[in-house]
Amino acid sequence: MLHGHEIGRVEVDDKKDRVHIGNIQILPEHQSKGIGSLIILKIIRQAQRQEQPVTLQVLKVNPARQLYEQLGFVVEGEDDTHFKMKRA
């Protein structure tokens, strides 16, 4: 929410051994403004308090992979379409 308007969505799954970001979407007109980074950093801080790693997967064609790498995620695996990433 930004100024009372929905600008995206995020799905977070607190699993037994990790925190998984299942989906994060920011409307195009609100992208590249640091909003996604702030959301992910908040999730990372919460996971650190729980002493849990954070995982996610990203489409191989999605340029958001660069953002995730800047935030400390590394590729731990892949399939035909996605990179599976983790931040310890």
Describe what is shown at a glance:
The protein has 88 residues and is an alpha+beta fold. The protein has two helices and five strands; from the N terminus they run ββαβαββ.
Fold and architecture overview:
With 88 residues, this protein is an alpha+beta fold. The protein has one domain (8-87): Gcn5-related N-acetyltransferase (GNAT) (Aminopeptidase, 3-Layer(aba) Sandwich). The protein is built from 2 helices and 5 strands. The protein has helices at 35-49, 64-70; strands at residues 8-14, 19-26, 54-59, 74-78, 82-87. Strands 1-2-3-5-4 form a 5-stranded mixed β-sheet, with helices on one face. Strand 4 (74-78) and strand 5 (82-87) form a beta hairpin. It is globular, with a radius of gyration of 13 Å. It starts with 7 loop residues before the first strand and ends with a strand. The mean pLDDT is 94. This is GNAT family N-acetyltransferase. Residues 1-88 form the N-acetyltransferase domain. InterPro entries: Acyl_CoA_acyltransferase (IPR016181), GNAT_dom (IPR000182).
Q: What is the CATH third-level topology name?
A: Aminopeptidase
Which class do the helix and strand fractions yield? Answer: alpha+beta
Which CATH class?
Alpha Beta
- What is the number of helical segments per DSSP (H or I, 4+ residues)? 2
CATH homologous superfamily - what is it? Answer: Gcn5-related N-acetyltransferase (GNAT)
Poorly predicted spans: none
The protein's oligomeric status is single chain
The tally of domains stands at 1
Strand order of the largest sheet: 1-2-3-5-4
| Major sheet characteristics | 5 strands, mixed
Give the overall shape, derived from the CA principal axes: globular
User: How big is the Rg?
Assistant: 13 Å
Reported CATH architecture:
3-Layer(aba) Sandwich
| Distance, first to last CA | 28 Å
Nearest-integer average pLDDT:
94
Task: Give the percentage of residues in beta strands.
Answer: 35-45%
Helix content: 25-40%
The H/E string reads EEHEHEE
How many strands appear in the DSSP assignment?
A: 5
